Amino acid sequence: MAEQKTILVADDESHILNVVSLKLRNAGYRVITASDGQEALDLAVQEKPDLVITDYHMPRLSGIELCRRLKQDAQTRGIPAIMLTARGYHLDEQDTIDSGILQMLSKPFSPRHLLVTVNQVLERVAA
Amino acid sequence: MTQTGTKLDGPPETEMFPAAVLEKLAGRLRPTGVCLALMRPDGTLFYADPVAGAFFTRFAVPAVQQNAVLTEKLRRLNAGAPVVAFDSLPGILLAAAPFVQRKQVLAIAALLARPGNFRLGEDVLQVCGRLALDAQWLQHQAESLAPYTRETLSRQTALLAGMLQDQLKLAGMEAELNGMSEQLANSYEELSLIYQISGGMRVNRRASEFFRQACNDVLEVLNVRGVGVVVQGDGPSRVDPVVYGSVTIPDGLLRKLADQLLAILSARKAPLLANDLAADPDFSWLSGCAGRLLAVPLLRQDQVLGCMFVLDKQSSDFDSVDSKLLHSIANESAIYVENAVLFADVHGLMMGLLHSLTSAVDAKDAYTCGHSERVALLSRHLAQQLNLPDAEVEQVYMAGLLHDLGKIGVPETVLQKTGRLTPEEFEQMRKHPQIGARILADVKQVRPLIPGVLHHHERYDGKGYPSGLSGTNIPQMGRIICLADCFDAMTSNRTYRKGLPLEVALAEIRRCAGTQFDPAMAEIFLRTGADRFRELLRNHAEKSKQLLELQETLRTA
Fold this sequence. Notes:
By secondary structure, chain A is an alpha/beta fold. In chain A, 44% of the residues lie in helices and 22% in strands.
């Protein structure tokens, strides 16, 4: 059996955390959660998750800044990220490259689609 | 006989006390040297910490289970009883408290411990004999455990009852939260699908294309074997009944299904759920193709415009969640269908008006019969060659139709004069772009056409009218129509002269590229070639002739 992958989910809206955690846990992932960017950064450094799913707008540290910091740290550089944004919000392409974001999903996202994306990203990273 | 890891069967307890809760609680108590045990209201044991250590699993728990006197005493504990400690059991200390909800004893929570005064007395040896345990081994096991007194164990048991209550409540809340998150996830799914579908709801999109996309979206989200759509009646939103997915329905049956669904849904105006088609009197004939069906009407103001249906959900029956989701999508689609009908009506009305206006202009100037229509056609052709987006091509066509609209304001004597115009007459003639633009300015919907009408007599070198604009300062629409207009003026027959051969006209356009015409645009125009132009114009002439004949027949009928 493959080793259980850990996913860090960061969002200041608890209902998003609940839905995403539930779906990911049901799919067999280990899930750790953070409700702001700083907490997420600390957890990421401590736990070295296989993937980070983060909201864009968060208190203390924004999602994009979180990704940038992860990219700067040699220990966490390789962790891929999926960013959740408000619908209609577009990130600069350069921004997404600089901060190592692999996928963007706009809210309200389809949880089923999120799961597909998570699987794809993890497969791509493993390959 | 002996039961270790005691988790006895019986559904009520396992439902009331989830294994995960008991394990968590037992785990917290274990380090204090006690063993969690739970009894039914009749005093019989149904749970004991299975990893509490050998003293408990092999000695204390089996001994308690076999002690009929203790069982009877526990049975008599009533809802109001405090914690009771039993210290007369051989080698075991047990404290028990009734676990009460709504004044009813649901279970008895108990802790087992090693008594402070444990020693291998006659009674303990007897139990050892019965359980086939070595007394020295038992002594050894007991010594490794913390000794308890009645009082300390009672206090801990009192705490236990509260903890158990809290843990159960927490577990209930967790289950509820998961349920709510599951519902929320479904809502997200629904919302995101609706966003996706309404994003594709541009009215100028073909209906079949819209529904293909919508059906495929549903196919993905609902995990069904087939998604289909049926739209009533004719018109722009008309689509033949169609089904997407892995399910195959022969054409004849699909038509039958469409008719039957429309008939049923028109009457009930609510979703139709048939999870066993074989047994359904209305749909048993479909059971060779699918086993389950869910259909929802496309409703607009109580009128059934059509329906959407899904076939064979993978792994289970259709339920109210599916129905609700499909219903939302059907509502969105119904808006699309209604809009498409309205859009087509308005568009038809507008085009009808434009053609009438054009005929009015052309009627005034008999020499230029059909000129406006041909300029529109040629302008559209050029716009397409220029790779303009569909919406702009359409606008160029309309502006082409209307380019000479202003001639309505020019006296017929001037328009119809075959000889040279006097400077005054020429001045009157030169006003027609502005007159046309002024007429259009009052109608919001045709305002985007004004640049084409106003500037179709500008020249690339700036020597045209009315504004004397030059180069690409001339609106693109004006440059397009200018080319088409001049080309048709040269090639069409007038009552007083025959038109130039196409090849000659094209050579003239090449000669004037850069002075009269936008050279890049002229280049693209010329690429079409004389033969293709001939074909275009011949097709157009045939169509107009048929139309004229039809009008003639109608008039004489």
